[in-house]
Each structure stands twice: as C-alpha cells, then as structure tokens.
Design goal:
Length: about 190
C-alpha cells in the first residue's frame, strides 16, 4: 500500500497504529497552506515557525490521546488550531498583524504560478505588492477574511466556523473589503495590471 495515496483519515489511522511515515505524509500534504496562513497573520518568520510547531504538537497530542473526531476534515481542523493560536498570540500582545512581503518570505513564492517572461514577472510582482499594501489598510475583520479566503483558500463556510461568525457576516466582510479596496484604488489612482 502506497502511503502517499491514502486519505487524511487513513493516514491518521496508520499513524495511530505506529506508522510514523504516515504522519510525515500528512504534514507534507498540508504544511504549505497551514504555514502560509500563520505567516500571513504574524508577518514574523520565527513567530510563524513557533506557532507552526505548536500547531503540530497540539495535533499529535490530540491524536495520541484519541480525542480527534473531525473525520475527513483534517485540514479545516488544523487551520482552526493555527488560527486560534495566532489570535491568542495577538490578544496577549495586543499587536495587529500586517500583511506585507519581507526579505525572508513572500506568499507568492509558495503559490504555484505559470512561468512568466521578465516583464510579466515584474508587473505581477508590482501588482502583488500594491494589493498587499491595500489589504494592510483594511479593518482587521475584513483583512482576516481576505487572508483566509484568498491566501489560505478557505471557503466562506470554513471562514465563518473559524472566526465564529455567520456565513453572511463572513460574506459581508469580504464584500466590504472589496468595496474598500476599490475606494482606495480610486482615491490613490492606483493602476493594477
């Protein structure tokens, strides 16, 4: 049986039966999405690394204690853990994350993109920078929905569950985020290619 072709639930069962490789496959399958969402909230590589490790320590503890019951929804469960750890960190420190690129990490390095010629690559990079700056200026609730929807690729139902609001509230926050981004584009006369 090829471990890499197993479902998340099957990998969890294999891991609980002593097959360590199964957890490695599960981690590798979801690490980019989970780490990216953490980094976008923290904007600090070492803090993101710490929170990422804490997420998987909690996952392992929960699995070993036999308390995992999110059958078929491992990624959503792991994302909820990472989100809660990020929120806890910022509540304790009363800091607000800002989404902007750094020398160490750029979300677009993780995302798969078709090969571009040099001019297209420069234009896309400039557009991404402009969009990140606009997202930075959104109110916290709107910024959060944009990050979870577009960078963590979560559905509005998942976002609603994670942020503990109704689906309509999550949709409304996205709507207002887009309205606010359009206003900023118009006010600052920004050209997005």
């Amino acid at each position: 049986m090829q471990v890499s072709k197993l479902t998340d639930q099957e990998l969890i069962m294999c891991y609980l039966n002593g097959e360590e490789k199964a957890f490695e496959v599960l981690l590798n399958r979801h690490k980019n999405k989970i780490y990216t969402s953490i980094y976008l909230f923290t904007k600090d590589r070492s803090l993101a690394d710490d929170i990422f490790q804490e997420v998987f320590i909690r996952i392992i503890d929960t699995l070993r204690k036999g308390k995992y019951n999110h059958e078929g929804k491992f990624l959503q469960w792991a994302m909820r853990i990472s989100y809660n750890l990020c929120v806890d960190y910022f509540r304790r420190g009363k800091r607000r994350p800002i989404v902007s690129p750094s020398d160490d990490f750029d979300i677009f390095d993780v995302l798969k993109q078709p090969e571009l010629n040099a001019e297209e690559a420069i234009m896309r990079s400039q557009t991404h920078d402009k969009v990140r700056q606009l997202v930075d200026h959104l109110p916290e609730e709107q910024r959060e929905v944009v990050i979870l929807r577009h960078y963590a690729d979560m559905s509005f139902k998942e976002i609603a569950g994670l942020t503990q609001v109704s689906i309509n509230t999550a949709l409304g926050r996205m709507r207002y985020a887009l309205i606010n981004i359009r206003k900023m584009v118009e006010e600052k006369q920004i050209v997005l290619q």
